[in-house]
Design brief:
The complex is a heterodimer of chains A (194) and B (194). Chain A is α+β, with helices and mostly antiparallel strands and 194 residues long. Chain A has 3 helices and 7 strands. Chain B has 3 helices and 7 strands, in the order ββαβααββββ. Classes of the chains: A alpha+beta (194), B alpha+beta (194). The interface between A and B is medium-sized, with 18 and 19 residues.
Chain lengths: 194, 194
């Protein structure tokens, strides 16, 4: 393992009713979060390869954890998203190095597919900072029922020299989604958009 | 008495490998189960609320079972526990107190008759309110290495007419526990204290 992991957390949310109306079946989503040491903290590092490689590792680990927490076969995951928060001694670019170059490939390998861009967000912040992980359908970004977000936070992370990385997966869209647009049963799933 | 109406469930699992010191041979795991329920007494003073404790018992069992499941399915790994409640703004603190018996009962029963009082806390708050759930050793409240707490909360709960109910279980001492006191290995486990 290249990443020095201090902590891993998973969150599973299940929504059973909304506005008094049953959500049938309940919508479910899970996030896995790792808190790692930032090897580039406190100094300017030109070459961020080390963080990119950590991203590759975490892409696999966190997707496996999130899918396991959800308790479903990986191939029926419907939407996904990723996010990172860098502690105060790091750069936003460190989050980008983890999230963008190499993290996506193992995510898609674990899920079996994933034609769509993995929506992402990033920030720098202190302990307890909130990550809003954007969510979108994994094979067709325009599926409107699956535009969503999941909030996660850990009260003791990220410390100044840490980075917190999150991957979220779902088995469903929003509860009681009804604002039209492309439906999941209409997608082609080839170009990642429709 | 009214039925228990669950809007949402959230399960969190945290695994801590180190906190700046040596990596623990066995990582500390802490799990929390949260249920967002309708507060049947919101918005008015109801003198007799006792019966709702019985109504909550099945939920206490279900949440305790979900925690054991989240920790791998074997109740014998559980060493600490705690519980809490967040009451929405149209309710009373006293409504949160209804959770003491069913929450504690569910955990004790599934953990093979744990002896120590289940540490607890409660408050009235709005959506996103965080609660620090106190944790103690399940057979001897004085075990110093197991004094801990886990912060929990739900972004969109409790709404004014809801209650967030919480149970927490842990698998061991704080990850770098070293401040002395009664050790888990010295517990008699008769009076729930030592």
């Amino acid at each position: 393992m290249k990443a020095k992991i201090r902590k891993i957390a998973t969150f599973v949310e299940e929504t059973c009713t909304e506005m008094g109306r049953a959500v049938q079946p309940p919508t479910r989503r899970a996030a896995a979060v790792a808190v790692i040491e930032n090897p580039c903290a406190g100094k300017y590092v030109e070459d961020l390869t080390e963080l990119m490689n950590i991203g590759e590792e975490l892409g696999e680990l966190l997707t496996q954890r999130a899918v396991a927490a959800l308790g479903i076969p990986a191939n029926i995951v419907e939407s996904y998203g990723k996010a990172a928060a860098v502690g105060e001694n790091g750069e936003l670019e460190h989050a980008a190095a983890i999230l963008h170059p190499k993290l996506g490939t193992p995510v898609r390998r674990v899920l079996g597919k994933g034609a769509a861009l993995i929506p992402s967000s990033k920030k720098r912040g202190g302990l307890g900072v909130v990550l809003d992980i954007p969510l979108g359908h994994k094979d067709a970004a325009f599926v409107r029922s699956h535009f969503d977000g999941m909030e996660v936070r850990l009260n003791d992370a990220p410390r100044a020299n840490e980075i917190m990385i999150a991957i979220a997966v779902t088995d469903s869209g929003r509860p009681l989604s009804r604002v039209g647009g492309l439906m999941k049963d209409q997608i082609k799933g080839e170009d990642g958009l429709r | 008495m009214p039925e228990v109406r669950v809007r949402k469930k959230l399960t969190t699992l945290e695994e801590t490998f180190h906190e700046g010191g040596p990596t623990a041979p066995t990582p500390l795991r802490r799990a929390a189960a949260l249920a967002v329920i309708q507060n049947p007494f919101a918005g008015r003073y109801v003198p007799d609320i006792l019966g709702f404790m019985d109504d909550l018992k099945p939920l206490g069992f279900e949440m305790a079972g979900a925690l054991i499941e989240a920790l791998g399915g074997d109740a014998r790994v559980v060493e600490g526990y705690g519980k809490g409640a967040i009451v929405g703004s149209a309710g009373e603190l006293e409504h949160g107190a209804l959770w003491h018996v069913p929450g504690g009962y569910g955990m004790r029963e599934l953990l093979g008759g744990a002896k120590a009082i289940v540490a607890s806390t409660k408050k009235v708050g709005g959506p996103g309110t965080r609660l620090d759930i106190p944790i103690t050793h399940l057979n001897a409240a004085y075990v110093r290495s197991h004094f801990d707490a886990m912060e929990v909360g739900v972004t969109d709960a409790p709404r004014s007419d809801e209650i967030v109910l919480v149970l927490v279980m842990t698998t061991g001492p704080r990850v770098h526990a070293r401040v002395g006191g009664l050790k888990a290995s010295e517990v008699k486990g008769e009076d729930g204290l030592r």
